[in-house]
Amino acid sequence: MLGGDTAFSRPRTHDGSGLVMLAHVTFHNSNSTSAIEWVNYNSVLATLEEMETGYTAFQRIDVTVDSNPTNAFVRPLRRWAVERQLRRVRLRVSLHARLPHPFRLAWAHREHMERAVLSGRYDWFLYTEADVFVPSLAMRVQVQLALKLYAQTQLLLGFARVSNDTQNRPNPSPNPDPDPD
């Protein structure tokens, strides 16, 4: 049992089949279709596609994309989900109009996710942002090792964020030192 809470003790098969995940993806856009906004939109689509096709340990993934109401890509995102006919992923776009500052969008998922944790309906939880991609290999390793690691060490396994520079080389920090010497 994770943390001694019975909500985490639901029986599952050892191979992970039958697992259910709740994921939140934060996607802010200032009603723009600039090149960088297209990159973010396509990143969200890539994340959803990876969840649909690669997160095979999960029977179902309920994804909420948290966004601001002026996001130029809300309609295209909803349309994509319908046209794609997703089977594993169930997509919901949640618009947050009453935030005191746009940076608060990154916190908008917390109340929903807390209720979901307490409900016991989900086995796994993921929070990510439009510009962050979690490959299926990383998720597969997470599912295989996280509970074993926790049982042995009481430590939680997480992901390391890696950013790429302008030539697509891994860069360990999203804010690299401009003068490394």
Could you outline the blueprint of secondary structure elements for this entry?
Blueprint: E1 19-27, H1 35-54, E2 58-67, H2 74-84, E3 89-95, H3 110-119, E4 124-129, H4 136-153, E5 163-164, E6 170-171
Parallel strand pairs: 1-2, 1-4, 2-3
Antiparallel strand pairs: 5-6
Radius of gyration: 18 Å
First-residue to last-residue Cα separation: 48 Å
Characterize the main sheet: 4 strands, parallel
Low-pLDDT stretches: 1-14
Shape: globular
How many strand segments? 6
Sequence of secondary-structure elements = EHEHEHEHEE
Placed side by side, the strands forming the largest sheet appear as 3-2-1-4
Assign the structural class, choosing from mainly alpha, mainly beta, alpha/beta, alpha+beta, or little secondary structure: alpha/beta
Give the DSSP E fraction (strand runs of 2 or more residues). Answer: 15-25%
Percent helix, as a range, is 25-40%
The DSSP helix count reads 4
Kindly state the mean pLDDT as a whole number?
A: 84
